Amino acid sequence: MIQKSILVLINLIFGSMVLLSYYYGLEKLKSMDKNPSVLWGGVPEILQPGIVVFMFIGAIGYFLFTYNFLFNVSSDKLFLGKFSYSNLHLLYLLVFIPSMVWIGLTIDYVDSQKSMFDWIVLVVILFTVAASSVMLLLFTIDLKVESGSMYLAYVVGAAFFAFHTLFLDAILWTSFFHKSN
Description:
76% of the residues lie in helices and 0% in strands. It is mostly helical.
């Protein structure tokens, strides 16, 4: 039970911190008289609405697979035959902590001389979140704890979240960021 309580606390505390970091990041942009659209970099405008919609779909998926880990999975479960439930804590922290610093570092990058080191840090942050999301997807696939339709919902939810963090954030955003619209 304590493992699940820790997972709830991680989600409540660090999830709130991610949302606050985005709020403060947008406020910082306003105070700098910069349009928040600078965070898109060179991502084509035609793709942006679809990516925003997919953010919400990925968030719904996140809640689905997190619900599954909290209510359907024993804290004694070994994921993929070797990872304990406490490894979930690490994966969630590797999603939340980099996500908390992403917007601030991106704003600093846009506002600075755009050093290669700063760009590498941003890319590493996004790929850390992506790799952790893929591991959460693999843990979800490994479970098979519910009836077919609910299991499928958890897997699809985790897949949407992993797709968003890996393809849309880590690959697409980093690929387009320095291109002109």
